[in-house]
Amino acid sequence: MLQEKLDKRTSAQEPQVSTQQVLAVEEEKEVAAVEDGVFGGGGGEREGAVNYNTVGWFGTSVLLMKTQIGLGVLSLPYVLSVFGAIPGVFIILGVAIITTWSDLEVGRWKLRHPECYSLSDVGFIIAGPWGREIFGFTYLIFELATVGSAFVGLSVALNAISLHGTCTAVFIAAMAVAALLLASIRTLNKISFLSYIGLASILSAILTLAIAVSLQSRPSLAPQTGPWNKGLLLTNRPSFSDAMLALSTVVFSFAGTPAFLPIASEMKRPRDYMKAAILCQAVVTSTFLIIGIIVYYYCGEYVASPALGSAGPLLKRICYGLALPGLLVSMTIYTHLSAKWVLVRLLRGTPHLTANSIRHWVTWEGCILGCVLVAYLFASAVPSFNSIVGLFGALCGTFLCMQAMALMWLHDEGEEVRSGKKRNWLGSLWCFFVLAIGTFIMIGGTYGSIVSIIDTYKADPGSAWSCADNSGTVPSS
């Protein structure tokens, strides 16, 4: 295509323009055409409009990392204790391989379908209006459950740091107000700068924990006097419900994939998404494996879940203090993405999507308020919220991270086959495998979550808007 346009220009007697210059101009036009798919060039072509397409590839990679690296990584040592070290490591690697393919599939799909902003658009292309509603509802519920989980996680951190300085319901309400303010930032480019701080915060917290457990004589949950044994297991035989709950925990730790398509939609050059995703997955997988192995090796069967409690009360408070900015950034990103999805759904195709108009601002702030309110109700009004989040993760997260991506590839492959191209049987077999394994994890994880919910209600029915100290547990999301 570029060469044909070059031939036309050179035949029009324009010798002063070099081949490289023409190719560069035409390439930039094609890049702009990709950006025009959602925001109309980011609004940069209209005076006074907001330009959404401003995130560079490295900033994108940091955003992708921050959607995945949170306190959920501290559940991975427990996963190793459930399966044993060797199967646990292979399970983490297996999930990492599948989700890495899913993340790269997002980039391939975005270049082929630049009009797609989120998975609801994917659902529309694959299955029409019903597909859009099913994919969109699943995406929004999962994102809002993640925001609610962030509220609870922040209340846990504040309770741990302050030694339960006030009612937990007050902490959750304060975090909802903070989300209203921070998520009002309209472009991901500005939030990406916060992501550097958030990523450094979370990494410093989990590295501090890893160093602390390697230096202590014994973990805080182990007998503090007399002989003791770590109880390290190379392999283990957990019950089916325990195994599926642990497997789902690994999937949830890599479950940032649903947010990747909206993030790619705000890149300067969406074609640079691939290298951003590869860098992200390399860092995330390495971090998960290193932290999981180190903490499990030094704590064994006495590993706390989450692992911050394994280093004792003082280090627990220090680690939560270090992690606090990172938790705030995670809350901001997921609140922003949830509200942006609703905004695009309401204003797409109108100039108000990018214009600094009253309708734009009222709609934008209304979207944020609505998303924060729903997440707040999830976090405060539902007893045993941790188990509920686990259930949403099993039902929604697995589908959005695995099956949806396999359906995306099979849809485009089917179009190419109908146009006369030979079928890629290896790719098709891989997608059917991802569909099968994702469905197995979704069903099994849902079963494990329901068993966990029943056991939790039997042990402690819980209450809405509780003031009790919750710093002994934290959501896995």
UniProtKB/TrEMBL annotation:
GO cellular component: membrane
Amino acid transporter transmembrane domain boundaries: 55-450
Basic and acidic residues bias: start-end ranges: 1-11
Location of the protein in the cell: Membrane
Molecular-function GO terms, alphabetical: L-amino acid transmembrane transporter activity
Transmembrane segments: 78-102, 134-157, 163-182, 194-215, 243-264, 276-298, 318-337, 358-379, 385-410, 430-454
InterPro entries (UniProt xref): AA_transpt_TM
Region listing for Disordered, in residue ranges: 1-20
Membrane topology (UniProt): Multi-pass membrane protein
Main subcellular location: membrane
A Pfam cross-reference name: Aa_trans
Entry keyword set: Membrane, Transmembrane, Transmembrane helix
Similarity section: Belongs to the amino acid/polyamine transporter 2 family.
Protein name: Transmembrane amino acid transporter protein-domain-containing protein
Biological source species: Leucosporidium creatinivorum
